[in-house]
Amino acid sequence: MQHSQVHSVETRNVEVWGGDVRTQVLVAGDGPPVVFLHPVLGLQWDPFLDLLAQSHTVYAPYLPGTAPGEPDAHKSITDNYELTLVYDEILDAVGVDESAAVIGHSFGGMVACDLAATFPARVSKLVLLCPIGLWTDGRAFNNPYLLELPELAVAAFADPTGPVAQAALAMPTDPEAMGEVLIALQWAMGVAGKYWWPIPDRGLDRRIHRITADTLVIWGEKDGIISPDYAQDFARLTGGRAEVLSGAAHVPQLERLDVVGPMVTEFLQG
User: Fold this and answer.
1) pTM here?
2) Domain total in the chain
3) CATH assignment of the domain containing 49
């Protein structure tokens, strides 16, 4: 999965959690800090992050255990609470030691909520892109771990054969390189699964009321991973607002970058 990038992206190595957790943070841009927390498939620098970097300094940490060369970094993190503490230390390590905007996509949205609920003063603005973390029996949920890549494309994108989906899911043509990418994807999903599944057991609904940051929830109306009905739930529980967009599914920031980019930028600057 590859994307072209406009901004020069720096990779910073960090060591936290008493030296037991080593990971990497991608950094680009100039301006107020924005933290981006990635979904289960791992961290990719994409056009949405490029757009944010035009007006902000973007900090995008790898979930510990998914950064290149650090597959064992998750082993000393036992649960969601400790993961939240680790992210707090990661942000300190890269100099984001005061209140900052945080954007989370899917699983990253769940992590962002926990960060904002555990450390309310750290998060000034919260943007949730199709977040997981809440659960209502009977609502549509398509577990990405049970889907082959073509099925995942159909569930995640309103137009799975369109240019946005094709770019997001592009694979190297070299068989060896493709194998490495697929292994990395499977590994990232496995590491993330330690913290998010089963969703009801993670208890976000019991602590989400602690969030004090202004919150914007964005969803694609054709999301085939998790029901867009959750958009209003997240907005209500955080006191924020929800936007459900046509022509988008589980990756609205790429499928509707023309709308989401200005919407998020305006929200962060407001």
Assistant:
1) 0.93
2) 1
3) 3.40.50.1820
